Amino acid sequence: MTPRLLIFCLWSLLLALGTMITSYYAWSPYSSEERPVAGQSYGPTHK
Amino acid sequence: MINCPSCGAALPVRGFGVPYTTCHHCQALILRQGQSVEMVGKVAVVPDDISPVQIGTRFRLGAEDFVAAGRVRWAWSGGSWNEWLLFSAAGRSHWLGEAMGMYMLTAECPDALVDPQVVRFAQGADLAVGQTISSGTTRFAVTDIKRAECLGGEGDLPFPAHSGRTMTNVDLRGPSGEALSLQRDAEGTSAWLGTWHELADLNPSSLRELEGWSLPSGFPGARA
Amino acid sequence: MKRVGSRARTIECPACGGTLEVRAAGWSVSLACRYCGSIVDVSRPEVQIITAYKRAEASFALELGARGELFGQEWQVIGALKRRDALYRWQEFLLFNPYLGYRWLVVCDGEWQFGTMLLDRPAEVKKGVSWRGTVYRRQGQPQTTQTEFVIGEFYWRVARGDKAEASQFERGDEVLSQELVDGEETWTQLVPVDGDDIQATFAPNRRRQPRAKKPQGALSFKSDYGRERDDLPMMFAAAFGAAIMTLLAMVLIAGPVERASTQISAPYLTTLEGHKVGTLTVRRPWQFIRVRAQGAYFDNHWVDLDYSLVDQATGQSIDSYGLVERYSGRDSDGPWTEGDRRADTLVGRVPAGTYDLYVNAQAHSWPVDAPPPSTDAWADAATIDVAIEAETGALPWGNWFTLVVLLFTVPCVITWNRWKHHFS
Predict the structure, then answer these.
(1) Same domain membership, residue B113 and residue B77
(2) Min CA distance, A22 vs chain C (Å)?
(3) Which ipTM value was assigned to this complex?
(4) Average pLDDT, whole number, for chain B?
(5) Contact C105/C195 with Cβ under 8 angstroms?
(6) What is the pLDDT confidence band of residue C1, given thresholds at 50, 70 and 90?
(7) 3-state class of C250 per DSSP?
(8) What is the rounded distance in angstroms from the CA atom of residue C23 to the CA atom of residue C78?
(9) Cβ–Cβ contact B224 with C under 8 A
(10) CATH class for the region spanning C259-392
């Protein structure tokens, strides 16, 4: 096992644990927050 | 038997028909022409080195036998090396280059002198690293160019090895590791083709005894 | 006519005056003083100083001048180098025997190797090189190695800070090492030697053997010189395993799923207020609730959806929103469409409890100031139908995809570097 593989496995474990903990607390950076101020950003952005 | 015209010491006659020899007593550089013997200068003492080769060392490669008859020591900006003049039993001359503990045995290769770039080099033009030349059907690439200066010589020599004598040495490599070297000096340009060997591969005998070292196994005359 | 070679030549260090032996006189080009570290030119009879240093480092595993027997031949240590690359430090010793030439001893992390310079150049083949009919596989990427410190004598112009590009090719425990310096390459064959044999023959000082530097930070992701096995497949496997394991754990953690759904008709101009989607119970301390809205067919309209999760016990509400939209048109590039008639809303951090989910909805047309042409059958429709479905125990897919990206970045970057190197 090379040192960097070991480091990588630790990194993977850390990420996996972090993701499980955020799952437990039902936290996500992608969950919907406050709705944007009305009248903004509606309609197509197509030019 | 001839005697040194300078100090009168007896000079060994090895009979290889080379014009120059040196006196190991007084460092006289002697030109022999027929029966006449003329002192043409002095050679510098070759600085003592660790080389296990000496004048009289014999080699055998394949079915050919060689004997060392003379040596020139050259220096360049990156160090110095020995060129040993060897004669084969057939009387052909060879140079044995000694550097980095390895040996390059070369024979003259007139074929390489035909290449137009070598002709220009012989006329004084420069070659550049990476340039290729052909000799027969083989293409060689220039790997190294050295301007060398003679530090001294001993034994029988084909040219007067005055210290300060200079030459340009161009090393070339073939596709299968063949080594070609071009040497240009005041007298002309010659081409030498050879291969690298370790000393043991050359089956040397009459090697110089070196204090503190015994002949390793695999060398003729080594203790079992 | 036999001449006996003199004892090793001795010189006086022009920097510190120390007496130094030149063991390979005539062959050695530079000598680094064992007392002061200064580098001296010994290629000519007149000794010249090249670089002066104040201090020599004495911590080499073998002493200069030490003799020992390896593979039945006697060798003397005449030069010693400390070298390093991004990850490792190691020591190299130049061995000398006037009849045999030069050899090397390399020690890294307590492992010893015996090196012989090749006289013939290995040929490049796929994935490695071929030497004397045997294929050696490339190990890792070329590494820049640097000479940190030298003492003793060498047959080339040695200097602290010398850099070389080194590559390694392996077959079993035998290694071919290629070093490139200013375009000139040298090849060395390295075979393992037993550390105990070295101990017995050269009597090295064991405490001074270099240890591998502990990987630090980003450096740990660089491949390590001389000992890299191909760890890339293992990295991909570890990343894959971690991703799958985490997904399973997330499903377990997400907890029981409850669903509620409804169908609404979103009116124009006015807001459909407080339409109840249903009741959901969060049975874990915390759960995600996902609300999925799917609009029926419409075009050039959007529908604002405001969700309120009202805790039956406290009356507190968690607010969120969704937006279903769809636009189309035609311009110089041809027809275009934009927007999604479907909207997923993930509500996080919902504490345990029973909730009523309400939705407010309002439809809008686009462009507001230019009503759609009357050929559009939906322009006149009074409402837009939207199906709404909510569930507890939802999975935060965004979290998982982020994990996957972070996991696979490392092996992918390594793969990319190899690939780039292979074709450059």
Answers:
(1) yes
(2) 8
(3) 0.90
(4) 88
(5) no
(6) very low
(7) helix
(8) 7
(9) no
(10) mainly beta
